[in-house]
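EI: anyone free to look at a 285-residue chain?
SC: sure, send it
EI:
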Amino acid sequence: MLATAELLIEILLLGGAPNPVIKLNVSDSIAFQENPKAVRHCDHKVIGFTGWRVVGAKQIVRGVVAIDDLMKRQPSYAHLSASVQEHVAVAAAALASSCADVEMVEDESSALPVSDSDCDSVVTGPDDPTKVTYAPHTDDNGCFVARQEDNNCYDYANDIATNSFAQPGRGSGVCKRTARPCVANDCSSVRQAAESDGLVWVGTALPTTLPPSGHYVSLHIWPRSNFHWLRMDADLMWSHKPGGSRVRNVDNRGRKIDDPAQADVSPWSTHCGYMRTKPSNVTIY
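SC: here you go
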């Protein structure tokens, strides 16, 4: 059924800050929905622009040049930062060339098993670093799966499922709890906000052993646009949760992550360094 009202379209960037949203008028909303039959095979990165989605819906549109052009013509699109516009243009072109045809796919979250756990309240992971493992369906009682869209990279990195799409600094009162994001997207601001939440700065050298308690996290910045966090697991490998998408243990090239500074998490091009978090001792929201 075609839209009879204005649609809100999410630009799926899969970062720590909420995705930008563009409002379409009725005629453009109808044009957005007039797409050929879906083809479900389309290569895309695990982080960065992966397509367009109607807010509240489960379908993602990617690899459709006409839709890409429609979205880039919107007045609110022009208000996005130059770096975001440049990234979307390059990534959208890559998707269009890699798809077998045009594509409208179901959101990947709908294909994942959903935990029966009660995730309505905050679930906190262990302080013992040997128990921080890459196991999305059991980690924090499976809440990173059951409440996938409500938890982001900062939740996952701290191993705390808040269901609030947590922002550095918000839990410790640096900003209002309605702020998204809480602070400017640069290394210094996000680091200070995380320290306010209870995380401890470690430095820029890759940790090669587990800490006595808590675990290490890695901070990455898309300059002036967004932030991203990765988590060291008990096997000294790293995993992450791009935005409201599923948990991963690979980078944009499909490689397991043993050194976050060398991982491809573009366009998060600035590696700020490492911090230590202890789930029982940090306050995030």
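EI: The radius of gyration is 19 Å.
SC: 👍
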